[in-house]
Amino acid sequence: HSIICIVGARPNFMKIAPIMAALNALKPALEVTLVHTGQHYDVAMNEQYFQALGIPAPDINLEVGSGTHATQTAEVMCRFEAALEGKNPTAILVVGDVNSTIACALVATKKGIPVIHVEAGLRSFDRGMPEEINRVLTDQISDMLFTTEPSGKDNLLREGVAAQRIHFVGNVMIDTLKNNLPRAISARKIASDAGREDFLPEDGKYAVLTMHRPSNVDDEVVLASLINTVVSISNQLPVIFPLHPRTKSMLHKFGLEKLLDTPNILLLPPMGYLEMLGLMQGATVVLTDSGGIQEETTALGVPCITLRENTERPITVEQGSNTIAGQNPQAIMAIFDDVMRTGGKAGRIPEYWDGRASNRIADLIAIEFGIPRAS
Ligand code: UD1
Known about the structure:
By secondary structure, this protein is an alpha/beta fold. The protein has helices at 10-24, 47-53, 69-84, 99-110, 130-140, 150-158, 172-180, 187-193, 214-217, 220-234, 245-253, 273-282, 291-300, 315-318, 329-342, 357-369, and strands at residues 2-7, 31-36, 60-61, 91-95, 115-120, 144-147, 166-168, 207-210, 239-242, 265-268, 285-288, 304-306, 322-324. Strands 3-2-1-4-5-6-7 form a seven-stranded parallel sheet, with helices on both faces. The protein has a six-stranded parallel sheet with strand order 10-9-8-11-12-13, sandwiched between helices. Helix 1 crosses helix 7 (172-180), helix 1 crosses helix 16 (357-369) and helix 4 (99-110) packs parallel to helix 5. The relative contact order is 0.13. The site of uridine-diphosphate-N-acetylglucosamine (UD1) has 19 residues, from helix 1, helix 5 and helix 11.
């Protein structure tokens, strides 16, 4: 038996690490290989993650790089199809919702190769979001679907996915979080390494901001308004802001960098995994438009303000520490003020976010494909 695992973009890396480790425990009956599509290629966006998480070097790198959605998706498809030439894997395994996820799933299913989708069934119900299209389509052509929260199964059943294909296993991102928390790097060290040992106040309190969704950063008026809101927040609490390449280039394009040139905002390059973990863990509050960070803050019990109108991860609001704020400055400030006054939502840990999701996945894959256990 053999399974080809696929990664492409940053949020895939922390999901694949524990899955590959769990699948590798099925050796020698199972051969596990890794294909990197090259959707993310900067050192800060990928190599740092491979190193920090101990992900094996990819067996194949398709080196697709950036492009329009059509170009990027099509390039992955063409190159992945060629890479499958002469191979007859038992299945391919994709994670998440990036362009590489749908591209590889589509190639494999048309070749008659079963597709395993980890993190299936999440829905924002916002088709303006490229990831939502990727999620809906990938789930329709997947053979085994692993969900992170109960909403996933409800969504899949409503879309006609057969119940026996759906498996609620929990959240592999939280496996990675638990494995790496002891090695997390503190904000104080990060600020000091950036030459700003004076950045954090005596009490050590700070906010973390991440932002990269096209809906937040590609429109000048929206981006300017969000940045002005962040500046207001920084008057009360210092803000650490690692910049995604897309956001950096948009700030430059619209000439908005100067707004951020204040002593209470620390701009940083994209952080490695252990740095980001430490930043979140020590934060008073995290502001983000990321999907994964909504989950990680829930697992850490740190209040999260989501700068989006919706979430595909409703459990982080229902049970976790997340609040949906949208883009409106008053709404964001009201939630921020509440966090400052009350400490914000603590929440509780959702079911199966226990660090064992990858083991459940490997067990179910072994049963599904009849892969014998080593002992
Ligand atoms: C992608 C995912 C998004 C995920 C995000 C996390 C899709 C549709 N989107 O968005 O779901 O949350 O990754 O980071 O797949 N760039 C670099 N270096 C890189 C990669 C990108 O400079 O290593 C720049 C390029 O200018 C590129 C832009 O960032 O055009 C966007 O990259 P792309 O991979 O298209 O999408 P992301 O916005 O990163």
